[in-house]
Design goal:
17 helices, 5-stranded mixed sheet, disordered N terminus, alpha/beta, 42% helix
């Protein structure tokens, strides 16, 4: 529950700092040393932001995600206080940084989708700016695929070597830092500075009324006891599924055990604790996708996902999410496997819903693993050309620091918990999900195009993972060699 303790600590800090900003007295929050974890305030070293006056500098932040499907969340835009919780938290966070350093935080949100070559508008804007030697953007949040392409093109700054940026601090996501630091270098990451990664974490929603109707009462307890496995999830799904109108076929008029979508197969792989590509003892990426547990879980997952009497994959009918959301709200499915942001769609649901982490491969597995959706991801990065690295690092660290103090408590406690979650158990589940996130660089870098290969299994209803893996293995190994060489290059 370390994440939950840290959130509570941040909430206490926010309660003290927010009034100082909101009163409009022109003063930034007090900057006396603040412990990074108040639960250990007596032993943890204090952290203090450095002092500086940057004479009204405009720190401009670029924002672009997969806007075709609404994945272009802007965590930096708030023109004024409106009474809307997240807007006001972002406004107050920006104001704290602006007052402290005498800067102006502005943002630019681009529209347009990331294309198949991972060279969408975010990539184009940053690469064009860097090639021109133009420090147009102080920082950016861009889609994961674009971020990787920018790294390989030498268009991003290595963040851990920038002045004032300390990625070991609690306001940077330590799972992301650990999973994505190749050869000790980090070119993009996430943390309190952006809530987009939280939204695109894959989880399991369940309809509590359906569960009650079928005597399923141990979902929460099985998670806490470590017995929440694929076998248990599928057992209950099969119990619930039924041709309710008796017409001899399963359609959207009937009741399913689970509503799924294509990308959940990537979550199934990572739920075993295995990644497509993993950092080895030398800090370099190696191919780790083909393991006994992955082969087995994919065999079982496809058995489940291909059973049209139990699972409804709405993307095989339409990419429109309206029908499956209505089905879940109407009690036509026990589970809905989706991204956390879907909770917003259930706010007006009459029956209660709950939330669970992706299940374990088996009970011997030590912990749960929750996948970050690669297509939907957005990461924080810094363009490779800047006119003052000292100033950029100072502002970026302040944005992250004040985000943890001001934005994170509002997002976690007010937006997620109060608006979406229906019970205390779901809040505990949320803590497990967010603290067990998996950042799989194999998916983000499209190594061997394996992300597509496992998706095509679902598209085509074909269980042929071994042949797909072997077909792409040499390409994957070549890509990994290129990626590792980029990170080992000291020039």
């Amino acid at each position: 529950m370390e994440l939950f303790k840290r959130i509570l600590a941040a909430m206490l800090c926010a309660a003290m700092t927010l009034p100082l900003i909101a009163c409009g007295n022109g003063e930034a929050p007090e900057t006396a040393p603040v412990s990074t974890d108040t639960a250990d305030a007596d032993t943890e070293p204090a952290y203090t932001l450095p002092e500086a006056d940057w004479d009204g500098h405009n720190f401009h932040i670029l924002v672009h995600g997969n806007s075709e499907s609404g994945w272009d969340k802007n965590d930096f835009h708030a023109e004024e206080l409106t009474g809307e919780l997240m807007n006001d938290a972002v406004f107050e966070r920006n104001a704290a940084v602006e007052e402290r350093y005498n800067v102006d935080i502005t943002d630019e949100k681009l529209s347009g989708n990331i294309d198949g070559n991972s060279m969408g508008p975010g990539y184009q804007a940053i690469s064009t700016s860097v090639l021109a030697g133009d420090a147009a953007y102080g920082a950016a949040t861009v889609g994961g695929y674009d971020a990787c392409t920018l790294v390989l093109g030498d268009f991003l700054a290595e963040m851990s070597s920038m002045p004032h940026i300390d990625l070991s601090q609690s306001w940077w996501d330590q799972n992301a830092v650990s999973d994505m630091k190749i050869a000790g270098k980090t070119y993009f990451t996430t943390g309190a500075v952006s809530t987009a990664i939280n939204d695109c974490t894959i989880a399991v929603f369940f309809n509590q009324q359906v569960a009650t109707d079928f005597g399923i009462t141990d979902l929460y307890s099985s998670v806490q006891e470590g017995t929440w496995t694929f076998e248990k999830m599928w057992e209950y799904a099969k119990l619930v599924a039924a041709d309710t109108n008796g017409d001899g076929q399963m359609t959207t008029d009937d009741r399913f055990g689970s509503i799924t979508w294509d990308d959940t197969v990537m979550a199934a792989v990572n739920s075993t604790g295995v990644k497509c590509a993993t950092l080895n003892s030398e800090g370099l990426l190696e191919l780790t996708l083909y393991t006994e547990s992955v082969v087995d879980v994919l065999d079982r997952y496809t058995d489940f996902a291909f059973d049209k009497n139990v699972s409804y994959n709405y993307q095989r009918d339409s990419y429109d999410i309206t029908t499956p959301v209505s089905m879940f709200k109407n009690g036509q499915s026990l589970y809905y496997l989706q991204l956390l942001n879907l909770a917003a769609s259930f706010r007006d649901m009459e029956a209660d819903f709950g939330i669970l982490p992706y299940p374990k491969y088996d009970e011997s597995q030590q912990k749960y693993h929750s996948t970050v959706g690669s297509w939907h991801s957005m990461f924080f990065c810094v363009p490779g050309v800047m006119d003052n690295a000292d100033r950029s690092g100072m502002i970026i660290e302040a944005l992250a620091y004040y985000s943890e103090q001001i934005v994170t408590p509002v997002y976690y406690d007010q937006v997620l918990n109060y608006k979406y979650m229906r019970d205390e158990e779901s809040i505990a589940m949320l803590d497990i999900i967010l603290s067990s996130r998996v950042f799989d660089l194999g998916w983000f870098y499209k190594v061997g195009n394996y992300f597509a290969e496992v998706l095509y299994m679902i598209y085509e209803y074909t269980d042929n993972f071994t042949s797909r893996y072997e077909k792409a293995e040499q390409m994957a190994l070549g890509q990994l060699e290129e990626i590792n060489a980029k990170f080992l290059d000291e020039n």
